[in-house]
Write a structure and sequence with these properties.
Elements: H1 3-6, H2 25-31, H3 34-49, H4 59-83, H5 85-88, H6 106-127, H7 130-151, H8 158-162, H9 164-167, H10 169-178, H11 183-206, H12 208-214, H13 219-222, H14 225-242, H15 245-248, H16 254-275, H17 290-315
Helix pairs in contact: 3-4, 3-10, 3-17, 4-6, 4-7, 4-10, 6-7, 7-10, 10-11, 11-14, 11-17, 14-16, 16-17
Family: Belongs to the UbiA prenyltransferase family. Protoheme IX farnesyltransferase subfamily.
InterPro entries: Protohaem_IX_farnesylTrfase, UbiA_prenyltransferase, UbiA_prenylTrfase_CS, UbiA_sf
Protein name: Protoheme IX farnesyltransferase
């Protein structure tokens, strides 16, 4: 792939193989980062279901709002892949993505992302209200311009500040029902915001070489593995009690509180295992980062189960 085509932000077209076929649906779906999208959609749905008046919302409008959240997340992912195609090409974890692999032209991916962004925000506005559409547009802009283009290549705090982009969905879901943003969706935003660093740094510990090769200043690359392990424990120690805040402010009942306390305790146990992992003199793991991999997997379960418990507390137990 030519150097001009790989330069971030230039939008050049990479030379495509003769077998390139625009009908390859799988590659276009891959641009949307469907695995990331699943968590975004679920947290947005949770925000919607616990909002006052959720059961009175027309099912078609509710489904449209969730679709808009999913499409917007995918659109931001596509633009992210367009911009990051140069570093994706040198990282083993991302080298087979459609753009660096030459299966989709960069300009086509950018146009795809922009079109989906505009369509999702417009449809959200038409189906629900201006507040939900505004927060949805803000989430796309934050992920693309603040995280992808500004922070990711400049500071090890990229995932701390940029993590706000992934914390918007429960706020969007809530606003789609109520037309406003109050204390509860802000609490849900805070939970996802604080959850993001230990979740992502657990991944970054065992993807260290990839980030170093690409020159991305993730915390393990700039501060070392030992400091990253310490930060994972610190953020998890903040997250564990933060998960109890919906109960402390009277928004949820004791059943949710029990689940949140257990989940937080288990997450902290995983974080401490990452800190205590056997390391060499540089702080690199001697166990192939097994505790970090386990912590990363658990972090996904944590958020799914926590939000599911909050929804069940409202819909089943009537908190």
């Amino acid at each position: 792939m030519s150097e001009a085509a790989m330069e971030p932000g230039q939008g050049g077209n990479a030379p495509l193989p003769a077998s390139y076929d625009m009908s390859e649906v799988g590659d276009w779906i891959a641009l949307l980062k469907p695995r990331v999208m699943s968590l975004v959609v679920f947290s947005g749905l949770a925000g919607m279901l616990v909002a006052p008046g959720a059961t009175a919302m027309h099912p078609v409008l509710a489904a449209t709002a969730i679709l808009c959240i999913a499409v917007a997340a995918g659109a931001a992912g596509a633009i992210n892949m367009w911009y990051d195609r140069d570093i994706d090409a040198v990282m083993r974890r991302t080298a087979k993505r459609p753009i660096p692999a030459g299966r989709i032209a960069p300009r086509a991916a950018l146009a795809f992302g922009i079109w989906l962004s505009v369509a999702s925000v417009t449809m959200m506005w038409m189906a629900t209200n201006v507040a939900a559409a505004f927060v949805l547009a803000l989430s796309i802009a934050f992920y693309v311009f603040v995280y992808t283009m500004w922070l990711k290549r400049r500071t090890p705090q990229n995932i701390v500040i940029g993590g706000a982009a992934g914390a918007f969905p429960p706020v969007i879901g809530w606003a789609a029902v109520t037309g406003d943003v109050t204390m509860v969706p802000i609490i849900l935003f805070a939970i996802v915001f604080v959850w993001t660093p230990p979740h992502f740094w657990s991944l970054a510990l065992w993807a260290h070489d990839d980030y170093a090769r690409a020159g991305v200043p993730m915390l393990p690359v700039t501060a070392g593995a030992r400091e990253t392990r310490r930060q994972i424990v610190i953020y998890t120690a903040v997250l564990a009690p933060l998960g109890l805040v919906p109960w402390l402010v009277g928004f949820s009942g004791p059943a949710y509180a029990v689940v949140a306390a257990v989940l937080g305790g288990l997450f902290l146990r995983h974080a401490i295992a990452v800190l205590r992992d056997r390391q060499d003199e540089t702080g690199r793991s001697l166990t192939n980062d097994a505790p970090a991999r386990a912590c990363f997997r658990y972090s996904l379960y944590y958020l799914f189960i926590l939000f599911a418990a909050l929804v069940a507390d409202h819909l089943v137990l009537g908190a």
